[in-house]
Amino acid sequence: MEIWDLYDENKKKIGKTHVRGVPLPEGCYHLVVHIWIQNDKGEILLSKRHPQKSWGNYWECTGGSVLTGETSLEGALRETAEELGLVLDPSQGKLMINERRKHFHSDIWLFQSNVVIEDLQFQEDEVIDAKWVDKVTYEDMLSKKEIVPTLPHFWNEVLGR
């Protein structure tokens, strides 16, 4: 059971927690992180969602909800370790964007890593594959609707800053 801290519209904790799966109270938000990982070649790491999940078999960046008591950075590091078995160096990460959506605040992180795909250990019920892609391949995957459509266009939204 996941428990989240609740936030107001300005991303300030309100001193209450929430259990995942229960509708959020009106005017409350939780915090999610999206973790984009870039290598020295300028490629980004995408993971393929387990077929039993919503958006199954689509490609995405790593991400998830921040748990009670975690900072955004701690949540990003935990999610990456859980889903990919990849321990990121916190000093190699940068918070690029924070945006408020319908029921959550989204922190979008960019990390540097040159991990070898074969060294990743996928969380069985979350991830079934991973690959490095360049901008051309990423844009092609977007046009073919192979990437989770709720994600921002990476190069324009994150690297374009």
Automatic annotation (TrEMBL):
Domain Nudix hydrolase: residue ranges: 28-155
Coiled-coil intervals: none
Native organism: Ornithinibacillus bavariensis
Name of the featured protein: Nudix hydrolase
Cofactor: Mg(2+)
InterPro entries: NUDIX_hydrolase-like_dom_sf, NUDIX_hydrolase_CS, NUDIX_hydrolase_dom
Pfam family, one: NUDIX
GO molecular function per UniProt: hydrolase activity
Keywords linked to the UniProt accession: Hydrolase
CDD domains assigned to the protein according to its UniProt record, in alphabetical order: NUDIX_Hydrolase (cd04693)
